[in-house]
Design brief:
By secondary structure, the protein is an alpha/beta fold. The chain is built from nine helices and 41 strands. Bound molecules: uridine-diphosphate-N-acetylglucosamine (UD1) and calcium ion.
Length: about 450
């Protein structure tokens, strides 16, 4: 049996009232349609076609190379969308067509596999996926006959009061026998509440022609569709618990999994500890025993084993084992921390290598710099890397001690084991082992306070 897959993603998404096309809204960092395409790919279809709206460049941009977009120029309904797709598919005698809407990201590859198995076993003209939902509002309802056989599907907008009570909903996912589907979609009419060509009408059409129809009843969670912003939030929350549960099974500790946000592409090792308010996004990986949070955002970063990051923002950074970040640090792209290095409170580090065991404990800016192994950058020290036109680099040697409130005007170098005096504006290189100091000598004016008061009192 050959499977050709069709993903329907051309709907106008008007109920979202958003700026983005509906099917590219991210859930756990992955566009809705990518979740669906990933599940479909597990069935290894011979061909996958995605129905898109005209000018859907943002949708095309997230499609993998091996799927083919086809344009539905007017959104006349799901049956019409399938017809547009079938125009680009050559159906052999033993081919079957899997149809999945792009807005049900929770459906799994395993469930699609069960659909295919049931379809093959029963030899039905169409097999659908259904579920019993506590609140079926908005979904098509499955109407069964006295022998419990699926007869037809009625859209919510077209239900009678009695049909509205039906809890069994249509998931919008079907496997069709390729022999009948083209002809059946041709018989769909649009005399309904929404004036659209409904794909679910094919069920009643095939039924009337005497074909057999099967339904695979699944977990309602998998069929949750995204039509509105609150459904998007609901689906994202279900996906989040699915992801978090999977990580906890792998030995990740979460103090409160309802407040941990881990994107689909993140990798965690066993023994990672995540506190509430942690967001791990993009291509981030976290090593064994690392502790992240509370309240920390990490994107596209590599965090080694035993790293500790709390109340901080880390983007595009590499943080080696046992290094510590925060509280209240901003670690920006290109920052690399060696083993056991530290960036403390109110510290910003950008495009800089901070050596093994080096410390930037308080209130500092390190940009376009190399900080040597076991060097210390004092409170309030900054690298002045930008002269208004171009950026320059600063090099701080191994074991160097940059005094508090030092301004290192780049390009400049502080040698290994060198010191800078607190408050100095360093514009010239400091040699290895030397002290670079730049500030006026302190004077002392004795009796000043008394004289000052006398002047005030004299008026
Ligand atoms: C659809 C089903 C409903 C089912 C529900 C499950 C129809 C008529 N109804 O309702 O029985 O319970 O899904 O989630 O099919 N699309 C196009 N072109 C179009 C219209 C839609 O490509 O002209 C795409 C949409 O992008 C979407 C999918 O088809 O991904 C389903 O369309 P949508 O409007 O969301 O249908 P529902 O009202 O949710
Ligand atoms: Ca929908």
């Amino acid at each position: 049996m050959g499977v050709k897959a069709v993903v329907l993603g051309a709907g106008s998404g008007t109920r979202m009232k958003g700026l983005l096309p509906k099917v590219i809204h991210p859930v756990a960092g992955r566009p809705l349609i990518r979740w669906v395409l990933d599940a479909v790919a597990l069935l290894d279809p011979e061909q996958t076609v995605v129905v898109v709206k005209p000018d859907a460049d943002q949708v095309r941009a997230v499609l993998p190379d091996d799927v083919m977009p086809v344009v539905q120029s007017r959104q006349l309904g799901t049956a019409h969308a399938l017809q547009v797709a079938l125009d680009c598919i050559t159906l052999g005698p033993d081919d079957h067509v899997l149809v999945v809407p792009a807005d049900t990201p929770l459906v799994t590859g395993e469930t699609l596999g069960r659909l295919a198995t049931l379809h093959r076993r029963t030899g039905s003209a169409v097999t659908c996926i259904t579920a019993n939902m506590d609140d079926p509002t908005g979904y098509g309802r499955v109407v069964r006959d006295g022998w419990d056989r699926v007869q037809r599907i009625v859209e919510h907008a077209d239900t009678t009061t009695r049909e509205r009570e039906i809890k069994e909903i249509n998931g919008g996912i079907y496997m069709f026998d390729g022999e009948f589907i083209l002809d059946a979609t041709g018989h769909v009419e649009r005399n309904n509440a929404q004036g659209e060509y409904y794909l679910p009408d094919v069920v009643a059409i095939l039924n009337a022609e005497g074909h057999s129809i099967s339904a695979h009843l699944t977990d309602p969670e998998e069929l949750a569709g995204v039509n509105t912003q609150d459904q998007l939030a609901e689906v994202a929350s279900l996906m989040r618990s699915r992801i978090n549960r999977a990580w906890m099974r792998q030995g990740v500790w979460m103090q409160d999994p309802t407040r941990v946000y881990v994107d689909a592409n993140v990798a965690l090792e066993a023994g990672v500890r995540l506190y509430p308010g942690v967001h791990l996004e993009g291509a981030t990986s976290v090593g064994a025993g690392a502790e992240i949070g509370p309240d920390t955002y990490v994107k596209d970063s590599w965090l080694g084993p035993g790293v500790r990051v709390w109340y901080s923002v880390v983007r595009g950074a590499t943080i080696e084992a046992e290094a510590e970040v925060g509280p209240y640090a901003s670690i920006r792209p290109g920052a690399e921390f060696g083993e056991g290095a530290k960036a403390g409170s109110f510290v910003e580090v950008k495009n800089s290598a901070v050596g093994r065991g080096a410390k930037v404990p308080h209130l500092a800016y390190v940009g376009d710099a190399e900080v040597g192994d076991r060097a210390n950058v004092g409170a309030g020290a900054i690298t002045a890397n930008y002269n208004g036109f171009e950026k320059h680099r600063t090099r701080i040697g191994d074991r160097a001690q940059v005094g508090s409130n030092t301004v290192l005007v780049a390009p400049v170098e502080v040698g290994d084991d060198a010191f800078t005096g607190a408050g100095s504006v360093i514009t010239r290189n400091v040699s290895e082992g030397a002290l670079g100091i730049e500030r006026a000598t302190q004077r002392e004016i004795p009796g000043y306070a008394k004289r000052r008061r006398a002047r005030f009192e004299a008026g």
